[in-house]
What does this fold into?
Amino acid sequence: MRCVAYVDGACEPVNPGGVGGYGFVIYAEGRAVAEGLGVACCCTALCTNNVAEYKAVIAALKRAAELGCRSVKIRSDSQLVVYQLSGVYRVHAPHLAELLEEVKKAASQFAEFSAEWVPRERNKRADRLSKLAICRHIRDDEEARGLFGDALATERQVAYLKALGVDPGDCLLKREASELISKAQRRRRQTLG
It folds into this structure.
């Protein structure tokens, strides 16, 4: 089975040093067959969006192996990670070199492995999963909540989204809530003309 895995990693509300979350969606024969999310790191200077992106690749490869994929194409909106995976860029940071070795080991079990850059707009589902992982960690982890609790959407934002007919889901970052409110307001103005 040929699989395509869309992956994304983010570090919020600050990069470096925030909460590194990742998400992935695996497709086979044109349909989503698996997705996942998780926390790559938290609250250290080495916690970056690049670390989270590598962890997304590793998690997606592990899941693809469980699904029985024979070949895997990774699609990511991180040019740095894609070019490092493809050998175009060298890895200078020791902690990223370790993660690259993990990827190579995980990728070696597939008959084919490749990585391809995609624009952010084509990676929305994995991006949303990475942000959801971050949000849930900030909400549920005492240390992260103490450091970054103010990055979570306010009750007022959530109520306003609901009033606009937008489902905010179970967890939302403040910045994401603001973006959703702006989009919903634009749609509403266009509809009312």
